[in-house]
């Protein structure tokens, strides 16, 4: 595997993880509204 390709893959994975985290954070208020029993705080 070329170093360039590896860098691209790492960047892509980081982007996917970042997007997933941002999506999860955006969904938290909605989840909190829907399932208040699952959140102890």
TrEMBL record:
<keyword id="KW-1133">Transmembrane helix</keyword>
<keyword id="KW-0812">Transmembrane</keyword>
<feature type="transmembrane region" description="Helical">
    <location>
        <begin position="9"/>
        <end position="32"/>
    </location>
</feature>
<keyword id="KW-0472">Membrane</keyword>
<protein>
    <submittedName>
        <fullName>Uncharacterized protein</fullName>
    </submittedName>
</protein>
């Amino acid at each position: 595997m070329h170093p360039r390709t590896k860098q691209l893959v790492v960047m892509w994975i980081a982007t996917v993880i970042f997007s997933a985290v941002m999506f999860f954070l955006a969904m938290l208020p909605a989840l909190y509204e829907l399932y208040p029993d699952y959140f102890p705080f």
